[in-house]
Batch of 3 targets.
Target 1
Amino acid sequence: MNAEIIAIGSELLTPFRQDTNSLFLTRRLNDLGVEVTCKTIVGDSLEDIRDVTRQALWRAGIVILTGGLGPTEDDLTREAVAAALGVELKRDPDLIARLYARFAARQVTMPPNNERQADLVGNATVLPNPAGTAPGQWIETVFEGHPRVVILLPGPPWELESLFESECFERLRKQAPPVFRGTRKLRVAMVPESACDARIAPIYKQYPDIQTTILANAGDIELHLRATAGSLEAAQARADELAGKLEDELDDCLYSNTGEPLEQIVGYFLQMRSATLATAESCTGGLLAQRITSVSGSSRYFLGGAVTYHNELKTLFAGVPPLMIQAHGAVSKEVAAAMAEGIRHDCNATIGVAITGIAGPNGGTPEKPVGLVYHALHDGIRTEVIEKKFPGDRARIRQWATQQALDMIRRHLM
Amino acid sequence: MNAEIIAIGSELLTPFRQDTNSLFLTRRLNDLGVEVTCKTIVGDSLEDIRDVTRQALWRAGIVILTGGLGPTEDDLTREAVAAALGVELKRDPDLIARLYARFAARQVTMPPNNERQADLVGNATVLPNPAGTAPGQWIETVFEGHPRVVILLPGPPWELESLFESECFERLRKQAPPVFRGTRKLRVAMVPESACDARIAPIYKQYPDIQTTILANAGDIELHLRATAGSLEAAQARADELAGKLEDELDDCLYSNTGEPLEQIVGYFLQMRSATLATAESCTGGLLAQRITSVSGSSRYFLGGAVTYHNELKTLFAGVPPLMIQAHGAVSKEVAAAMAEGIRHDCNATIGVAITGIAGPNGGTPEKPVGLVYHALHDGIRTEVIEKKFPGDRARIRQWATQQALDMIRRHLM
């Protein structure tokens, strides 16, 4: 069974905004075994909405329209869908009463144009919207001889998502022939995308029935597996089988087989070992600490650290001897190691981690080019230093560098 | 004149990827006075691409298709557009020769399927693609009695953008009736979206000819103004006039009238005053330092700072007396002030800034709920503290808090 999504709103046709509801809807439709075969974004024009709705009805069993359900003159989805289906709008007295009650409860007089939100497309079923005034609508119809489901949903994501979960998902399950999906999400650190694909393609190509999607970011790869079978157990077993072979191949480059980000995995490992962490950052300027503390509960293992942007602070906060900086330069193996040792000592942490490098776009030299980064880890006994030359712009180099540092911690604790 | 954009690729119909080329194309088309009235995302299906292309040709003078120009069997844009227009594909011998030369230059034998990239839709003009093997195509045609321009562009953004700039923009300018646009981008800190709109709506509504778009993030609002007139000067003057009135109304809440982010503006101010900055962060965990150092050249004014996540580090790095933390709690006016004073003193900076708060989702109490944040600034003489209660989740609260801290620095230096 297939679906089309139509996002309505002239603001979605500017350079500034993008439809994101369809990502959520696609994920949930896929969970039901429904494929999204086309997405359309159209402005607040009655004719345009009507026309693209008719075209979608020709092609798809399920047509979901998002947005354009509010009370203003720009909100034309109801009228346009009624025109596309050749049915009348009916103003629902119960809905009007509910709208007035909703405003009265907030001690506000309802502007009369809000009554438009009580207009139902033909014999539509009302989908109550606890998070807003515009209800959704569920329409089962026959279009040119084909059974069709048309769903109208409000545009604000928090309204759309809760309404879809509470009112649409189970109803759609009854419409869609039972298809069972098994999914897995694996994550890999510090392997280039092409190298990763070269290693795993021979494996996943033996599973042509499983959809494998590879998403690559700076030093981070997500592998999404989606298997289909006659039962949930069979589908999940199939996805698990491929996941298992990929895990064997990727070995310790794989850091998660359930999808968590690296900073979360590092947090688990630190807690498991009852270890604490302190960081000293130069070129990443706090990004490493920020990623670690983006995890709720990170105060259980992250003590804190220093952003030693200027050389004096490398000495003040991490005890790096000024003569060492003079001799080797701030971006050097030696200084990275001293920063890790110093911050660990000062903070009294189990592990100290440090980053120093050249994020660019300026400050590079032939000997020390933009992208050169040293990462160091000290555990009280040994110091490990990794030198890397990262590609990309300032933001990407900083992201790579923090990923490398997190991966060092993970491997150290493994 | 209006345009439609069709993005092609089954990966754009998954929950993981989104068409972003259309944002770039919309911005450049708008610059030419061309409005985008519909966007369609469709998979690698000959019939679907053909059908949505025909529908777009009914409605729009310019139809741009992105993606599906590669050498594989999934790349069907050429075939589908030829079918939609009812013309033949012609394999261009010059293009074949260029493809072979390109591979030969890299000392690679060209797989024969690459010849498909030399197929031209009817009498299409070739748009050379220096960044990739798939050239673009420019087709001027008459569809059902209407003159139409159809443009085929490669999917990878860096190929698409450079090819559009070098081959399409000037060609389109000749097609589009001359329309002149003046634009302005204003940015506002720490004003809620509804409050901002209440202040400026009475002003921008007096300029119905100017498109005003409001984009709100945590503590940050962007106002995009776009005026249209018979000459570039008149259009820019019109946009400037509205921008001037909005600047008067927003007064010192407006931090940029050219669109730079707040961390960049703070950098300008610090450099102008020859001032240096040090930061001490608790709940934002390095996000403030990371934002400041995301600006290239920030080492000229940012010395560094501390992420004092644990209370001991508040004492170690920022000299906060342990008894003060015991008496008032780590999230308090007093500790925020002491952190700002201490980090300024330790780093020998002109200005010290500190943040301490509860980012959640755990750790809140009735007296000190999630979202409570103290921000402090010390300049060697006076200490200023701002208490705020921010809405949203952990990430949003942290973003709000760093925005507040940056705005304190800006206002202090103003």
Target 2
Amino acid sequence: MASEETSQFLKQSAQLREAVDAALARYIDFDKGCPSQLRKAIRHSLLAPGKRLRPILVLLAAEACGCDKGRAMPAACAVEMVHTYSLIHDDLPAMDDDDVRRGLPSCHAAYGVATAILAGDALLALAFQVLADQIRPAEITCRCCAELAAAAGATALVGGQADDLLAERTEGTLSHLESIHSRKTGAMIYTSLRIGGRIGGASNEQLAALDTYGRRVGLAFQVIDDLLDARGDEQVLGKPAGKDQKRGKLTFPGLLGIEESERRAGLLIDEACRALAPFGDRAGSLEALARYVLERNR
Amino acid sequence: MASEETSQFLKQSAQLREAVDAALARYIDFDKGCPSQLRKAIRHSLLAPGKRLRPILVLLAAEACGCDKGRAMPAACAVEMVHTYSLIHDDLPAMDDDDVRRGLPSCHAAYGVATAILAGDALLALAFQVLADQIRPAEITCRCCAELAAAAGATALVGGQADDLLAERTEGTLSHLESIHSRKTGAMIYTSLRIGGRIGGASNEQLAALDTYGRRVGLAFQVIDDLLDARGDEQVLGKPAGKDQKRGKLTFPGLLGIEESERRAGLLIDEACRALAPFGDRAGSLEALARYVLERNR
């Protein structure tokens, strides 16, 4: 990607990230009833500096369908709430046992295990409250709630995490690894795009295109994440690197080697960009984002 | 309550419980993507023998509004999923550390902490998936989703649990104890009634009546639960008794004494029944249920 395109994409995504952060902060300004430790824990994790990849995908998918991005902002916040809840629970001692997240102490490291479990629970519930309260027309809201719940549920995010925990102790194949990531990371990514598309009034053809784009980008994103961990790039990762190998965790570089993993990531991004054809010029930002996923690895 | 009324109520609620259990089992018959340990853990907790109080309240509230109970069944299942998720997480070692629930090993005792956390997470998400998929018209669905999410969230169920954990180490007052229970138990109970009412087409006056009934019954239910624990009635409780006192937990008998707690429970149930006036004869089952909450203590 030319460096001018990169810098333009970085500028746009920084603006979107700022808008998302401001909206997120408003949604967790609870009235009384939320104990102060719980409120602080939710704030600590939700407002920690993140890439905001999923909310940005919601907003850009809505834009690609010709819709004002602001209309999709509540849904963008909802997907970030679900993502943050999953990070809080994944980091727990009984799960991945990570003490650092997004460059800060993880939620349980800062507030204790009980509060961290509850902060995650509260964020998962809040995501549906925001969607159901703020997105209209109601038929679209119902589709968005059902798809977000499915992406967060036993056959997607939660199921992928459960298999990922087991995979630390198994040999594993490429298809098993892809199945874990399509559920653990992929589902939330393509669902973010579909939700943005639905709010933007996407046709069925456009929804299918967003779905394909999301599945390819999601998998590429995970391959790159594994590469960054293998190389020990803690700054880009925002968490300690090299842990995958120490745990004997199933990874793409571990199964395919570094070069083949890089080649696959490149192919996936090419396929993702080709899927955007039905949107014409309006998908420029989504294309730039896909190309940038590769850039993270350089 | 006359013993004929009691036996009629018990017969009806056993039928409803059976219908709820059958519907719950259908919703967790996941297709592939859900690892088998996770599926077993969800099944273990969701289908354990429970009173099904909240789903029965959904169904009876819909009936009181003149609606066929079957139309509210998906919502009845959704509230039971949220309730079961909260029991699984409350039982965790980092929270209340309970090894027995509903007469069976608690979820983490049977399947480990990581799987129990994930089983709870999956049930919370599934509740919204079922509501959003199965309840129509869509405007009603949105109100039901938003109210259920609020009842499960940081200012209600989760906030109440967070304060309850702290309350084990504080002196506490009656108003603090009531505030904990109105969030931890009460919110899900009056929300179950409101959701059933909304699906049944309740007027605003009827919704307010269901809300009042729910708040009174919910608090009475908690007072009785504390009394059963204080008396050591493990069979009615379905879990080990006497734990509240051992932990120095804030309870109604601890604050008010046994007699005054009993008197309050009776007054709350009387108020609950009076609130049902706008429904006339159609609220007979709700009234019988309220009276039966007191019976548990005899």
Target 3
Amino acid sequence: MRFVLHLIEIKKGGRCLITVIEYSRDFFREVSIEEIDKLDVVINKSKVTWIRISDLKDRETFGKLAEKFKIHPLTIEDILNVDQRPKIEEFQNYTYIVLKMFKFDKSSKELSSRQLNLILGDGLLISIEEEKSKVVDNVLEWVKASRGIVRSMDADYLLYLLMDVVIDGYFIVLEEIEDEIDVLEDELTSNPSPSLLHMIHKLKRQLLQFSKNMWPLREVVGTLERSGQRFVNPQTTPYFRDLYDHTIRVIESVETLQAILSDMLDVYFSAVSNKMNEVMKMLTMIATIFMPLSFIAGIYGMNFEYMPELKWVWGYPLTLSIMLLIGVTMILYFKRKKWI
Amino acid sequence: MRFVLHLIEIKKGGRCLITVIEYSRDFFREVSIEEIDKLDVVINKSKVTWIRISDLKDRETFGKLAEKFKIHPLTIEDILNVDQRPKIEEFQNYTYIVLKMFKFDKSSKELSSRQLNLILGDGLLISIEEEKSKVVDNVLEWVKASRGIVRSMDADYLLYLLMDVVIDGYFIVLEEIEDEIDVLEDELTSNPSPSLLHMIHKLKRQLLQFSKNMWPLREVVGTLERSGQRFVNPQTTPYFRDLYDHTIRVIESVETLQAILSDMLDVYFSAVSNKMNEVMKMLTMIATIFMPLSFIAGIYGMNFEYMPELKWVWGYPLTLSIMLLIGVTMILYFKRKKWI
Amino acid sequence: MRFVLHLIEIKKGGRCLITVIEYSRDFFREVSIEEIDKLDVVINKSKVTWIRISDLKDRETFGKLAEKFKIHPLTIEDILNVDQRPKIEEFQNYTYIVLKMFKFDKSSKELSSRQLNLILGDGLLISIEEEKSKVVDNVLEWVKASRGIVRSMDADYLLYLLMDVVIDGYFIVLEEIEDEIDVLEDELTSNPSPSLLHMIHKLKRQLLQFSKNMWPLREVVGTLERSGQRFVNPQTTPYFRDLYDHTIRVIESVETLQAILSDMLDVYFSAVSNKMNEVMKMLTMIATIFMPLSFIAGIYGMNFEYMPELKWVWGYPLTLSIMLLIGVTMILYFKRKKWI
Amino acid sequence: MRFVLHLIEIKKGGRCLITVIEYSRDFFREVSIEEIDKLDVVINKSKVTWIRISDLKDRETFGKLAEKFKIHPLTIEDILNVDQRPKIEEFQNYTYIVLKMFKFDKSSKELSSRQLNLILGDGLLISIEEEKSKVVDNVLEWVKASRGIVRSMDADYLLYLLMDVVIDGYFIVLEEIEDEIDVLEDELTSNPSPSLLHMIHKLKRQLLQFSKNMWPLREVVGTLERSGQRFVNPQTTPYFRDLYDHTIRVIESVETLQAILSDMLDVYFSAVSNKMNEVMKMLTMIATIFMPLSFIAGIYGMNFEYMPELKWVWGYPLTLSIMLLIGVTMILYFKRKKWI
Amino acid sequence: MRFVLHLIEIKKGGRCLITVIEYSRDFFREVSIEEIDKLDVVINKSKVTWIRISDLKDRETFGKLAEKFKIHPLTIEDILNVDQRPKIEEFQNYTYIVLKMFKFDKSSKELSSRQLNLILGDGLLISIEEEKSKVVDNVLEWVKASRGIVRSMDADYLLYLLMDVVIDGYFIVLEEIEDEIDVLEDELTSNPSPSLLHMIHKLKRQLLQFSKNMWPLREVVGTLERSGQRFVNPQTTPYFRDLYDHTIRVIESVETLQAILSDMLDVYFSAVSNKMNEVMKMLTMIATIFMPLSFIAGIYGMNFEYMPELKWVWGYPLTLSIMLLIGVTMILYFKRKKWI
């Protein structure tokens, strides 16, 4: 994972996938078109028009789109540059919102992100996915099936729905990371290897990257929640307030996970020094037992002429017994000290 | 304890326990009903109506409740989702407040929480407990017995009373955690085991979770204290200001306990390295005493033909004496260095 | 010291000590009464009335006091609950201020606090001490002796005087703690024992408790300093501004002492690992000197038949000389490495 | 690198390089002059006048410049003092902006900076480079080639372009530092030498210096973005908002790199203590294997007369076999403990 | 250095040194008087009157001064109490500013401070130095010599000049500290002694004390810079803005130095544990070489009757050769592991 953000990377070739969805309380139409020129919609307040672009590969399309809906060139740049932070920008005739969708890859332990661009106008929502996304599919199904109150609400409620599924996705990602942490935690006390330390730091960085996106997201949702926002009806405001609550909870979960990882570093270093302690204890025990014994053996290995013990018949077995006694005493001593 | 917050978990089956309490200065009535349909109350300013729902298990009940009292669907969602942070939300015809009640389990050393939902309207308070709670029982007794000024006050004072008992409960939880910390502290210097480190981190996380709920609580109480709040009479404001003070003191206690746990980590690592020091000292003493002695024994174990000492009658006892002298000197040296 | 704050502890039995002081530029009267019923004062702007209650033991007295001066029941609760943080609360007819007076016990190294309650009305100051306090005595003497400008000022200046002596007392407490720190610092490098670590943490906690009271105090003084405060005349404002300065200096001193204690932890751990280093050096020196020597002795302890050195007359003394040489060389080597 | 900022260092001698560029939608003129006296331009709103001074060596020139364009003496001081933080200052007839351009020297691992001063007036931009800079050349080319919309915009857009290329340069610098960090990271686990620690600290300091410039830069761009800024047209505002976004991303990248370096310190200390662990294991293994063996040898080196084993024919080979057995057992034991 | 700030210390005896300077564009007069009674000046807007008091030893003088210029008693207290933080206080007829001048003593490595009090009135500046200061002398010379624009500006510009030289002095102090740090840094890797740690902590504390004065100074300058300040003319505002910039740079330099000292602590602990590593390596090498050798010697020191090797003529030299081989192999092994 590279951390320095890269400049605009324009994707060429290929083609966008454009779906136009129009709906009101009793009306639903979904049309897929391949070229932006064929797009022919009338925007009015009596229905919601949702233009979904799900696979952005073509710069030209956006040029035409920009012309049709009077979108500022900078917004087009931001859409094509998939390296944005979540943000909200108000323009004269629309509000532009950038969201990030995250995925946690369990094998490489890395977070990847996809950008979701949302343009909210009067009775109009344009959504541009970096890659076709399942969560947007789900919302489309939801609208098609006329579930909840979506069909009787305005385009701002559709925006709410899309943001809601994106933020719900964060909880799933965080749970996957939490599972990963649980696995590490088990290994931590049993085998505190340097590679484990590496894994802890890696997860810490993923969470850091993740949390870097959450703070601006909070601002985005906070802006939408505040009343007086253009294109957002007062009766939708409580929903954004609810979303704001979710965002706060995501942030708190991230902070808790970060605190756990921090604690794990503590435990790691503690486990390492415990191991050292074990090694040192072993060395000390060995030395404490055998040094006195070797010393006794050394004494009776001296070549003095007048060493009466050497002549005794019981000298040797007695010495061996004393050595045994010393050894056993030492072992009992270490047992009582709970070294063994 | 899982730290990533989970999405709405709707409890099905079972039945709610509904109690309707109506009171004014000279009047008190308490009726228990089993079905919301049988609820038949007239809300007016001449008395306080308290609807207590104490065991939420039934989704439908809330649907009917919402209809009767014009409660926003999002509030119903929040009530059923027992994973809320403390918060206050103003709606057109009521103010919705979420509180958490905590319990510290001494055997598992874990905090658990129960949600208390409060809906304050004009002359009306609806309280919804996740589980029937003793502290709410106490408040009911208090009202029944007409203690203090509660019977001559409005519904906002009842809200104050409920919040007061909940916040007083926090002090009890914190004292239990403090007792736990005291136990750990005693063990810390005597036996700094890795499991102790684990316990310290566990308590740290419980406190972190706890404190995560205190900051939004402060905001909730702060909002109620500020004048200009609907449904809160000016003469009740000083009581909420008092509550605010209590909240601040809870937060300060949490911070102090967190600081103590942090210090305990310091002490833990210090105790571990002290133990290492002890081990090393022992090794060094053993080596320092026996290495020179073994060396002397080694000298007189050499097989040179011309070693006059070996022929002396006093050679052996003299050597032993010298060894004894060296040993004793060493021990005295270590005594003076306070190693023993 | 328990850190979780306890709930109201009502002291029963006993009796309050009430002194009524009335003064203006040319007038001074001091009357001690035993029962609040006998209190008979007329409050007017032509003189200052100071009611000093210096030993609160009686709940009833306050009930009567509250009635006489229309004091809110919550204020009475706060006075009786001696576990308040410094705070200022404005009521319709008076401003209520809580201060803490600290004492540092040199033998137990613990801070204890006493509460001082001040009620400022129009031409009236009621002071309630938890325990009779010398600093309040001093202010009384000051007024009696008509020192400074106090007799020509209003009740707000008397409030200033009382606050000033209390805050001056903080500097004395901090100096005592600083002396304690100096003592610890001397011991730190000479004898870094675990009990020293314990003492550092203890002082850290005392300072933490202390500083927890300073931040709200700053707010209290800041509120009084701001113009537009009821019962505070514009010409007294500069005095409160001066007090605010003192408070800031107290806070800075606390922070500096905390930083010093933090540094001392560094030094402690450094001193511990230095000691370990010393131990390791000793072990290494002993092993490095005696292992080669013992090896040489071992060689000539071998029983090979054809070892010509053993037959030489000079074999033994030469070997001893070589051993001596090796030993001395080693010692010189360690001297040059500055291990000895 | 010295970190205390130095006072004004006035460069004497030499000569400034002055280029005057005038352009509008259909018009472009570029004139190089050597002396400020020869400068003869008419500033009006129908075209943009860009005075580029690209090598400031002459104090006098600025005196004359100041006179011509009514520039405040303090601005002149700031231009000559190349030790400024990024800042924006509004004067009556112009806005003065200081930017820093950074270069990372891969061999010395040091950041150096060059100052770019920009004076924005009505239809006028004066740019003063500390040293002739390529990025400014590029902007000049861009204007000459009439790329993008620059020729149809006002002087504020030219300011935007210059700031944009400067900020884009930051990403390049950060990538170079990131490459450096990657190199260090590889070395970290293989060879944790003190010189590596030194390198980590060095990079940390470079990033600190860098980030110290980013926060005021954010303020500068934020000021320009806010509407109501003189000399900045409303249609240019979105471009500055875009620039603000870039600045935030630079800051986030810096913070991420700083977090990585912090983690590396962790890893470094972990690697050092791992090495120590390895050393200790080796010592313990050697001692554990050879101490018992030497002890056995010591036993049969004793000179007791009655040691029956010594007389056995199989005594010696059996003893050797037992020793071998012990040695092999120990080695297997350490293998199982994964020490080898 | 004592860190708890002390209360007012009134210096008695001695005499103040008073100089009265009056100047306008074409007029300059300097008079030294010994007693405040002899002071006889007329303050008007046509000229600047600077009263310089440079050695405050006499309490009475200030009483008279206060009377003459209507200075508030609290200001007099602040002047006599040389333990102030930098601050600005507005009174009805003047603005009172406290600055600190620092000196770094290279031998004791301690910062000391002197207080400079400034009272700015309408056409009047009173400066009171704790001790006669060279930097104030320099400003006087500057005015006398009519350098720069000082003679054509008002008293606020004189204030600016005095503050400018004081703040410039901070850079010099910081450079001296930086030199000190450089010296420590060199010693750090070569000889990480506990006394070095002590020095690092000492410098850290000096910087802490220093920085504690910089934050309020920033406020002081920030207040002066803001327009709408009495006694400060709009055309002087840019000069105070420039001063504000300098203050920010001082603060940043302090922070950088603090970061460097923090890093040095890292390096210190790393160097200590590196030393330990060295010691351990030495011990391990010695043990690893001599333990196997001694074991071999031990084997051939055994007294078995049937040890054929002992009878061989080549037994002894072969054993010695094997020992040599083992020793050399070990040394080569450690060389390859880069321990030697």
